[in-house]
Amino acid sequence: MAIKGSCLCGEVTFEIDGDFENFFICHCSYCRKDTGSAFAANLFTSAGALRWLSGQARVANFNLPSTRHARSFCAACGSALPNVQIEAGFCVVPAGCLDEDIGIGPQAHIFTASQAPWEGELASIKRYSGFPE
Predict the structure, then answer these.
(1) What CA–CA distance (Å, rounded) separates 47 from 106?
(2) Cα 129 from Cα 102, distance rounded (Å)
(3) Tens of pLDDT along 66-119?
């Protein structure tokens, strides 16, 4: 099954073939900095599953020195994009960049020892279906 995805500006599009092996919610400090949020929702698949459809020249990569942490993003709009880890043989796919429902949910929270101190309060705060008035 091929799943399509794209960046926010639409310059970069891609397709992922096959199934995702894992879907993790990562709370590590690197992922929190990457997203500017409480966590990153990342899917994992084989490195060969990714096919760029358009805008591959706009894909920028960042590898945090002295770590295994890496990310890819659109150089035009900054949206997170799949990152292929050649040596490890897998591809990390930010769930938010997918344009289609994948039919599975997260399997686990990881690196919870690093989670933001305010994250525990999220389940009990007000919810709005749109921007509050």
Answers:
(1) 20
(2) 23
(3) 888 889 999 999 999 999 887 777 899 999 999 999 989 999 999 999 999 998
Q: Which backbone phi and psi does 5 adopt, to 5 degrees? A: -150, 170
Phi and psi, residue 109, nearest 5°: -95, 135
Contact 21, 42 (CB under 8 A): no
**Beta-sheet pairing, 13-17 with 50-54:** antiparallel
> For residue 100, what pLDDT is reported?
93
Residue 119 CB burial class (10 angstroms; 0-12, 13-18, ≥19): middle
Task: Tell me which amino acid residue 117 is.
Answer: P
Residue type, 124: S
| CA atoms of 8 and 15, how far apart (whole Å) | 15
Enumerate the H helices of the chain as residue ranges.
29-35
> If one looks up domain 2-116 in CATH, what number appears?
2.170.150.70
Return the beta strands (E) in 55-121 as ranges: 59-63, 70-74, 80-81, 83-85, 90-94, 108-110
